[in-house]
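Blinded run. Sample ID left blank on purpose so nobody reads anything into the name before looking at the predicted structure. Input follows.
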Amino acid sequence: MNMNKTLLAVSLLSLLTFSLSHAQEETTTPAAIVQQEYDPIVSMLDSLVTLNNVVRFNSLEGNCFDNVGGPNCVIPTFSEEAYNSRIAQINSPIPLSYNRYVKDYISLYADKRRAMTQRIMGLSNFYFPMYEEILDREGLPLEFKYLSVVESALNPVAVSRVGATGLWQFMYNTGLMYNLKINSYTDERRDPVQATQAACHYFKEMYAIYHDWLLVIASYNCGPGNVNRAIKRSGGKTNFWEIMPYLPKETRGYVPAFIAVTYVMTYAKEHNLAPVTPAYSYFQVDKIELTRPVNFNTLSKQLGLPLDVIAYLNPIYKRPYISAKEGASTLRLPTNKIAQFISLEESIYAESAPAPIPVFTGKMPGNLTADAGNSGNYTKKKVKKIHVVKRGETLYEIADIYDASASSIKKTNHLRSTSLKKGQKLTVYAWVKVKNPVKPTPQEPLVNKDSATALTETANNKDRDTIAADSSQELIKSLNSKNGSANNEGQRQKFVYHVVAPGDTLWNIAKRYDGVTVEQIKDINNLHNSAIKVGTKLKLMVVGNG
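Blinded prediction complete.
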């Protein structure tokens, strides 16, 4: 294929709006790569901080994990000749070379973000075996597995500031183009197998056009349209390093970063880098097929598996629920939990079945809405909350905590972008559940005449919009004192104790127990903040069958 045909083919393909990443449209004059205020590669590395609780990493203090002051804390340096020689010895069909741009990214992975690199090395034991099997089957260079490190730092739920999602950072429309299913419950851009297959299809399509692996990698970042324009502006050259000055700024660093990751992962031992092992490796996880809905909360309770670990092993699901409406769905579990799941399968399915949706024809007062998922026994009330941003937290994670949308939080706080800073205070409007007032029956009066009269007098002095919530709280207090905390559904509130495990947070502890909230845990245990230590015994008030 001559160059004119190549450029024509690329032009046609670029009409498909293939923008796999968030490249900037700056392709004017040659310029050296400089560190920008926002570096997507550094941002993805830092996003691994939020995965600490999920994958149960070991202690991550500083850059050394075995022995502070020991040999692993020494950051070695090497000569230019050593870097050149090592990269030349990497046996790959992708042309890898060493220069000052590659050196800058070697310094990033082996020195400046050394701790994050060791987490990536641990995560690679989980993801790389999946990648390698697919790459080998498709006849592609196995070194492409390192491109996912540059894209997402092996964070399966990574989201860029423009919405590129998953291990391979597909944009929404691009994901649909490559047959990745995206709906309210499922996002296959976050599935390590499906997304890797889609990425491989793209690599093969681009190689059929460019016949150069570095140009394929560049096009994965900025799209073939930008590569096409860079080739034209360079006078028709087709070598990456020659067209590099005419590519978007981000892409000028993207290819050197790929070469640097390939080098660092290959020569990790020489740089005193050791993997920080997560809780599960590829060979400690297996998958089963589901034909009926499964709720993650039910799964967590019946298998004794933390909710956040289930979510991490199954990042494809956007909610803690597998609907299984479109045929069989895949569930990944630790291999030591598979037999237990099979023995409890029918019980898990039964408890996960959604409650029937009641018919509601009345109008709720003020800012209250009926919660159909709880048969009308609960009401949702919208309240204003203040959230203090933690290190590494993203707008999308905060929205998920409060069951809100990232766009609404952004609008409420007048944010120009989704970038957040540690300690930043955000106003969030969240929906909270309150118990509907219980109607006493002649056969089984729930409160005596005196308490009912007191409730009526209280209600007359309150705003109509809060009658339901306040009456509910008064009833609960009355019932707790008279009936041993029994409520109208035959349930009792009881105390249990939870011993804090490595990676536990108040949020994921609350998720594991019925009726427990973060604020309740803090109140009962006299906690002034959310910091908890491993081994601490926390007292929890849970709702159970009486």
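Unblinding after everyone has recorded impressions. Strands lie at 285-290, 294-295, 321-322, 329-334, 368-370, 378-388, 425-435, 491-499, 537-545.
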